[in-house]
Amino acid sequence: MRDTRITVEDGPREPITPRALFMAFAMIGLCGFGGILSWARRMLVDTKGWLTETEFTELLGFAQILPGANGTHLAVMFGLRCCGWRGAVAAVAGLLIPPFGILISLAVLYQWYGALPQVRGALKGMAAVAAGLSIDAGIRLARAQPRRARCFLLSAAAFVAIALLNLPLAGVMASLVPVSIGCELLLLRQPAWPQRKAAPMDRKEGRS
């Protein structure tokens, strides 16, 4: 039977198998209070070494333009890439099943003790921690982006449209994604021209 496991250039600390995917995404789901983005990056990039910063950013970017839960999209795409459909099922199961059991238990406890001031204070503290983790993940993802003017302009346009103008997310994505793709397609044609232009200079230097 063909082995569909993949590794990164530096080599992950353990082979990427369906079982390893289940355990990794189960840990992401269990730790991901307020969202799994920061924990997914930490697990897949820092802890496991299965993805580089650039690879994770590209995978997350594609997951975010699809409708639905970003974390589930990320689990499906990464699991499918590593171990086929078995990896996709294992990653999604790990991401959803363990947190679901804990969620049911916490819902029952909250129904009994949710009115206590201590419980409400703890929930507010958890919300603050989740916000801090999201900010940290956003800064790390921004650092992984190329230092190019178009990246800053597109990021600023998205921030202004969504955070300041409160425009619908779907409309903003429908406008900025084609612009971003168009910019990249245009720039793919640019590197060949400077190389051909520099060739005569190289030959002149070789003669001298």
Explained architecture:
The chain has 208 residues and is mostly helical. The chain folds into two domains: 1-145, no CATH class; 146-202, no CATH class. The chain has helices spanning 18-31, 37-47, 53-64, 70-113, 117-144, 149-164, 169-188, 192-207. The longest helix has 44 residues, at 70-113. 19% of the residues are buried.
**Mean pLDDT value:** 76
Main sheet characteristics? none
Sketch the topology as an H/E string, one letter per element.
HHHHHHHH
Shape summary = globular
Query: Spans of 5+ residues with little confidence (pLDDT < 50)?
Result: 1-12, 193-205
What's the alpha carbon Rg, rounded to whole Å? 22 Å
User: Percent of residues in helical segments?
Assistant: over 70%
**Strand residue content:** under 5%
Q: Terminal Cα separation, in Å?
A: 60 Å
Oligomer: single chain
Briefly note the structural class of the backbone. mainly alpha
Number of helices: 8
Overall tally of structural domains:
2
InterPro entries: CHR_Transporter, Chromate_transpt
Keywords: Cell membrane, Membrane, Transmembrane, Transmembrane helix
Membrane topology: Multi-pass membrane protein
Subcellular location: Cell membrane
List keywords for this structure.
single chain; 208 residues; mainly alpha; 2 domains; 8 helices; 77% helix; disordered N terminus; CHR_Transporter; Chromate transporter; transmembrane; Chromate_transpt; transmembrane helix
